[in-house]
Amino acid sequence: MSVLVPPAVIGIVGGGQLGRMLAQVAQRHGYRVAVLTGGDERTPAGAVADIEIPAAFDDTAAVQRLVACADVITWELEDVDLHLAGVAATAGVPVRPRHQVLAAAADRAAEKRALQAAGVAVAPYREAAGPAELATAIAHLDGPLIVKTARSGYDGKGQVRLAADGSEPERTATAAEVFRRLGSVRLIVEREVPFDREVSVVVARSANGAVADHGVMENVHVDGILDTTTVPARLPEEVTAAARQIAARLARHLDVVGVLCTEMFVVGSELLVNEVAPRPHNSGHCTIEAAAVSQFEQQLRAVCGLPLGDGSCRPAAMTQLLGDLWAGGEPAWGEALSDPGIRLHLYGKRDPRPGRKMGHLTCVDATPELALKRVLAARERLAP
Ligand code: AMP
Q1: Pocket test for ligand 1, best of 142, 146, 227 (most atoms within 8 A of CB)
Q2: Is 116 part of any domain?
Q3: Same domain, 228 and 376
Q4: Same-domain pairing of 248 and 325
Q5: Omega of the bond prior to 232 within 30 degrees of 0, cis?
Q6: Cβ-based burial of 66 (10 A; exposed 0-12, middle 13-18, buried ≥19)
Q7: 188: closest CA among 223, 251, 140, 241?
Q8: Quick one: 186 and 207 in the same domain?
Q9: Which of 133, 166, 191 lies at the terminal end of a domain, its last residue?
Q10: Is the CB of residue 86 below 6 angstroms from any atom belonging to ligand 1?
């Protein structure tokens, strides 16, 4: 693979915060950045890019414009129209990671099949394309269940939980009702896993097969949205090693050139893979401060054919800042930063809606527990 050197143009598909942090690191290296936003103007990534293309992902003229100005194209989200990849191939512009990886990650049914083909364990599940299949799936999978839409689900959206004991209204609702409630689309039904912890591994992979990760992150979700990450995860050494091996195995199996995040449930000493995302991930935000080379820099290096850097992390914690923090007015930024070790990241979003990811705080300390205490205290001070 030929090496792309600055001032080559990195084309980013997606205008969100992940694209913004990639754009910022690319520009620090002397690259230029073009962003296809998906529609909006002044997006988090587009606002810092050299070129912002505020158009839909299936807008042919906009896609051609991105392909015409980019030397390589990468992604900051996976649920996008993939015809872009064909346009890029015709023009001879490399797309990294390849679009087949996105196709597998954007559809939970395709994802589960890919995970199983790679030989990793997943929660027991069934696919259901209609109410009758859903009823069969619910009957076959005993215990508490989660029904998820195959596509367009994130942060716990597009999900219905079915309790095991039949006392929940969902359990007694007919499969037809659940099917309708989720929008009458293809679904998967999976067993709810009684996990001890949720963890993730972000691994970068080069075209030559080299891999580098940041260790194992420990994640806590609130209402389906990532709330805090601490690194390293509190796991026995052999479980840490196994989690890293699973992540590397999946990156290899999917032939990722770029970055892959694998989210896993820890149940005793067993690891079940929940999902993969072929891009940097929320849970890797703390790598900006905790590692010599962050997940965004690894993505840049991998897609440009540069050597991967040292991703190993010092103990750190991250907490997400959601739009809810703005309920009482502008958060007290100075109060949060009264602890000199706290680092603030805001994504430049203008409309702080509840549940919307507006930014995050990071802290590096002697242990992940100390770092977590400090980021949580800082967040508390933002909106007392
Ligand atoms: P997802 O959209 O699949 O990432 O789910 C969001 C969050 O819901 C996960 O991070 C878990 O906290 C929870 N969750 C999803 N699937 C399961 C499951 N099978 N068992 C237990 N918790 C789950």
Answers
A1: 146
A2: no
A3: yes
A4: yes
A5: yes
A6: buried
A7: 140
A8: no
A9: 191
A10: no
Could you tell me if residue 297 is inside a domain?
A: yes
Could you tell me the residue range of the domain that residue 223 belongs to? 197-380
Residue 102 lies in a domain: no
Helix ranges, 272-382 (H): 287-290, 295-304, 333-336, 368-382
Residue 362 lies in a domain: yes
What is the token pair recorded at 45?
């990534």
Tell me, yes or no, if the pTM score tops 0.90.
yes
Claim to verify: residue 224 and residue 356 sit in the same structural domain: yes
Number of domains in the chain: 3
- Per-position pLDDT tens, the chain of length 384: 789 999 999 999 999 999 999 999 999 999 999 999 999 999 999 999 999 999 999 999 999 999 999 999 999 998 888 899 999 999 999 999 999 999 999 999 999 999 999 999 999 999 999 988 998 888 888 889 999 999 976 666 788 888 876 544 555 567 888 888 888 889 999 999 999 999 999 999 999 999 999 999 999 999 989 999 999 999 999 999 999 999 999 999 999 999 999 999 999 999 999 999 999 999 999 999 999 999 999 999 999 999 999 999 999 999 999 999 999 999 999 999 999 999 999 999 999 999 999 999 999 999 999 999 999 999 999 997
- Counting atoms of ligand 1 from 1, which one is nearest the CA of 274? 3
Same-domain status, 137 and 275? no
| Distance (Å) from CA 308 to ligand 1 centroid | 31
Structure tokens belonging to residue 279: 């891009």
